[in-house]
Sequence to fold (717 residues):
Amino acid sequence: MTASGSLAAVAARLPRQNGIPGAAVVAVLVIGGAVSGAVFGWYVVVNAIVTGSMWALVALSLAMVFGVMQIPSFAIGEYFMAGAVTSYFVFHAFSRPGGGTALGYATPVISIAAGVAIGSVLGVATDLAILRPLRTRAGSSWILRTFVVTIGISVLLQNSDQVAVGPNYYGVSDYWPGGVVILGVHIDSDSIAATVIGLAAIAYVSWFLKRTRFGLRMRAVSDDEVGASLQGIPIARVHLLSYTMSCGLAALAGGVLLFLFPASPTVGTEPLLLAWIVIVLSGLGSVAGASICAYLVALLNGVTDQVFGPQWETLVLVVITVAALLIAPRGLFGTRESGLWME
Amino acid sequence: MDGVAILGWARRRGMLTPVAAIVLLALLPLIPVLGTRGNLYWLSGALILGGLAIGFDYSAGYMGLVNFGYAGFSGSGAYVAGLFAATWNMSQPLSIIAGAVAGGIVGLAIGLLAVRFRGIYVSLVAWFVSMGLEVIASNLNSITGGAVGLPVPLLGGASGSASQYWMILTIVGVVLLVLRLSVSGKTGLMFRAIGDNSQAARSSGVSPMRYQVLNVVVSGVVAGLFGAIYGFYYAVVTPDLLDVSFVIPILIIVVIAGSGSLVAALLVAVPFGVLTQQFGNTANSLPGLGLAIFAALLLAFVVWYPSGIRGGVTAGWKFLQRQLESRVAARAGGESTGQPGFDQGKRPGDSLSAVAQRDVPEPAGQPRLKEPQE
Fold:
């Protein structure tokens, strides 16, 4: 697979934690992918790559608010939902029979961009209206209160969506028509687009955090908020930016995945759970680590589908995650001694 | 023991407010408007929700553990009780006890897992476990009836009667009094010490582990008990009982009520339960509107007034008390110097306000939910 080459390159630079070299995890992922591809058919691997890219985005979305702002967010899924719903309605408004024209190819891009925009706007509104006032009051109970607040945001957005557009499923069968055949597997254009968009977004987030001034500020705030503010970093603005980026990433995943996950008020439940599982497995502090764990989770889901059936996906994931939490509480790639982990 | 001594003991152990609340709730069916069959049905359902909220508040209000996997406790109780009654033909009381035990066992499992983590990870682990249980319940079709659910006998054979309401209230009342008693002494102090700052509590010689497990197990028993009653009350046990969405109303109740007193949670649960059930009935054209409104309320309370309705009542009560004391002092003039009356008023347990004060050690407006700090 094309992804494995770049993954191996990334793995060489992964931090070592809990005595497990990052390369070993990547090896497990690649070998697992190869074996399950040979046993169950390569479409399992293709699906894992497509959904894994998107779970990576959702996980990064969670990592951004959890790592930088210390918000254990349970509202990620609702920004995912906002992105999906917006993309559907924009796509529906623009799409005309006889795609294949220039407009036909551009419509999905416009739809997904609109989803990201709405998700980001919702993020800005949430931060300004709820999180910022809370920040000035919460003090030491910040984590617990934001936890409850994000649950409230989640319920509010879910039910507002239900009131506004109803409990129906809104999906698209194809963003882009057509596809290619690789290794005897038909891969449709949407899957390719989703993978490309996902990898590009992961690369962008990684570059943003490492190479830009805003990214540096975010990492500084994430490491030591008091120290960062003493250095003159505008904490409130950094928080606003991370929350907005987080919501934008979740909405991007929601918009892109519309062809697999039709928009409905509760469409965000699964991405939320998967984001948490990925972050618990990988630990905070490494974009590459979170992405690799996202692919691992996606592959595991695909294998569970084949062996036990799709209804057992969650159980298998949850058992493995709790076990992993007991064995490696800081996660496979966690670089930071987070105050949230063990005593 | 004479009456005065009992009253004094009740004051010291913080038993007066719960007793008052139970008496108040017991009188509700006597009000003609509420005493109709339909309204009694809503009220009893709301009481069960109140019982669930008490068990939730026992962890949230005293240990700072917002148990996102609470449905795992109550749902296990409902399923085990349902299996006992429907599949093995046990009597209902026995099945309900079995449900409580099941809730306690799940609580023990979560508690033993949870002592290895802290803060938000306890909630996460509990959430994961409840998700896993939900998957099992929805897919073991031959045992649990799958997604359709497990039909169970109706609670007490009928619903919507005053006697049923009082029966449920008796159970809720006993649980409330027992839990209040358990937190009014040393154990409650330990819970709070650990919830406030686990490190500091440990360095003062408290073993957080034992109390953490104890707290979660008790919460689990209460959840299992009322989960079982919930299942019998609605005559069906579905996997929804194990879902996170089952915890949301309970969480909203506890936050709006103000956590850490158990009584407030029960008193808010009753109108909340009736309202949401009515909303579900009448607002069919706009499902979700009710929950959206309550979620907005929850946000408003967490951000602007975290001590909840209870905090407001306590503050108002203190204000009245102060006004009254200053009036009395002004009327007494200089005579009161040297009298023991002033000191007596300040001694814990000698006045209702002292009971309230012990509930709220911090100044009003401070959060009750605490996160252990580094």
Notes: The first helix of chain A runs from residue 2 to 12. Chain A touches chain B through 50 residues (CB under 8 Å). Confidence is low (pLDDT under 50) at residues 337-343 of chain A. Residues 134 and 142 of chain A are 8 Å apart (CA to CA).
